[in-house]
Design brief:
Structural class: alpha/beta
Radius of gyration: 24 Å
Number of strands: 14
Order of helices and strands: EHEHHEEHEHEHEHEHHHHEHEHEHEHHEE
Largest sheet: 8 strands, mixed
Number of helices: 16
Bound molecules: nicotinamide-adenine-dinucleotide
Shape: elongated
Oligomer: single chain
Amino acid sequence: MRRESDAVSFVGLGYVGLCTATVMASKGIKTIGVDVDEKRIEELGKGHPPFHEPQLEQMLKAAVRKKRMEFTTDASRVAQANTIFLTVGTPSRDDGSMDLAYVKKATQNVGSAIAESPSYHLVVIKSTVIPGTTIDVVRPVLEAASEKLIGPEVGLASNPEFLAEGSAIKGTLQPDKIVIGAFDTKSGATLTKLYRRIYSKINIPTIVTDPTTAETIKYASNAFLATRVSTINTIANICQRVPNADVETVAKAIGLDPRIGRLYLKAGPGYGGSCFHKDLQALISFSRSLNYDPLLLAAVEKVNQRQASEIVNLSKKLLGSLDNRRIAVLGLAFKKDTDDIREAPSLRVIDELLKNGASVSAYDPMALENARRVLPEKVELLPDAISCLKGADCCIVMTEWDEFRRLRPNDYKSSMRAPNIVDARRIIKRGDLNGFNYMAIGLGTSSP
Ligand SMILES: NC(=O)c1ccc[n+]([C@@H]2O[C@H](COP(=O)([O-])OP(=O)(O)OC[C@H]3O[C@@H](n4cnc5c(N)ncnc54)[C@H](O)[C@@H]3O)[C@@H](O)[C@H]2O)c1
């Protein structure tokens, strides 16, 4: 089998694998993408990404056209690459602990693929894995399947990913840091060299450490970010109960303190997406296995889960009972610029609305198809915002899509049965809303 000089391979072509591979290909690096999903591979070969991510489609098409990316279900092809990234999913089990089945399977496949190869390969764990996994789980599986020694014959490193959906390409083109947890000096040097090649024109701070510390950095990062969200949401919930208090002004002011900083201080319906909840649950479970109960992290999760009720309660304040009321939900994706609805707060809010006897219509510019797969049939999914608002007794703005910022008062007035708006993202300018009953997250307009 012919070996591509300096090629890299990605095993698992989801948000992380595909976006990272595409950016590397855009830098002139030959990439070989492997996934078990045949349909995904077929579509990727035509330049069609399986999810929405700004800039991705156009970069992917260019890379495929220039023959810098190849896609296959045949895992043995990874032997053609010097560096092999594992980017498979690491979902939660029912008890919150991490399910490493995909990581183990992918490691086995990679090990078998490189068993006969005379060359040095570096295997890089980019999936988010519990501290200790690269050394205690990946290393023995890789050694057994490849019949090679990790170190002299095969390199191994942890290289956690920090991209955020909705800005994954931008974040990968210019990451704020690179973390390399190297098994040995050669592994560290090989990966550092690859990244220098990719980011030849920009200086990206690089932390080189051991694999277990690298894995821990990823969890610490998500734990801090999630804590920030639950903290500002807690302040928002307090503001909501104090006439005239406004969390937006509070956030603006405290953000000026350099010890706090202004980013990630936006009150809202709670965090969603595939990572925060899963990673916090995994960290809590891991921590408990070490006989340490991480009380703070459990509280962060609890605040987040309860945030949906805060939103639904705002609609109850406007309508009284929700029984037989029609609620229009604008936005289903867990944030703007993605079609991802995994752990989206909209799903928790809709569930609670239905339990309160409301009928629900919903619209999202990108996530309708994904939402249809998980929402009950009785939720009416509409193709645009105006038809979603039609006949509604109340509208809840759940995702901060620019399209919703552009809606004018008349768009609501001409469609809704009653002028009630709950703004869970604080995107509506209040001055625009004369004649509306308006409730917003973190805005204390009336007593609880
Ligand atoms: N999505 C994010 O924003 C993000 C950010 C940072 C880190 N992460 C972490 O990165 C990892 C991947 O996340 P994702 O969101 O890209 O996952 P994903 O679910 O979108 O994609 C995973 C892909 O792996 C494929 N796969 C599973 N087993 C395979 C195997 N044996 N061989 C080849 N392909 C296989 C699946 O078919 C799927 O296409 C996870 O550990 C996640 O926690 C995700």
